[in-house]
Design brief:
With 101 residues, this protein is of the alpha+beta class. The chain contains five helices and three strands. The chain has a three-stranded antiparallel beta sheet. α1 packs across α2.
């Protein structure tokens, strides 16, 4: 039941997460490109709508990966695209440290 609850973030949190300015987020709110509710006179923006909005523009998509949360996500080196993570990588990670190759 808790998993059905939507994730909502403030304007400043959205700006930090997506690597854009608060002004950009407020502009998207004004033009009704983002879904939100108002709680205690503060915008609470639907995270799902933020993700959709961020992917509509190449520039925003790039800002997400360079200035937003994407800069902290490690780039995975996945050899087999159909199975993630790679089974060989799991074996290497689970291999005891004192065991030699």
């Amino acid at each position: 039941m808790l998993n059905d609850l939507p994730i909502r973030v403030s304007v400043s949190e959205a700006a930090k997460l997506f690597g854009v300015s608060s002004k950009t987020i407020r502009s998207a709110l004004k033009s009704e490109k983002l879904r939100y509710i108002v709680v205690n006179n503060r915008y609470k923006i639907s995270f799902d709508s933020l993700l959709d909005w961020s992917q509509l523009s190449t520039r925003r998509r790039n800002q997400l990966s360079t200035s937003g949360i994407g800069q902290y996500v490690q780039k995975w080196n996945i050899a087999n695209k159909k199975y993630s993570p790679n089974p060989e990588m799991i074996k290497r990670l689970l291999k005891p440290k004192n065991q030699s190759s």
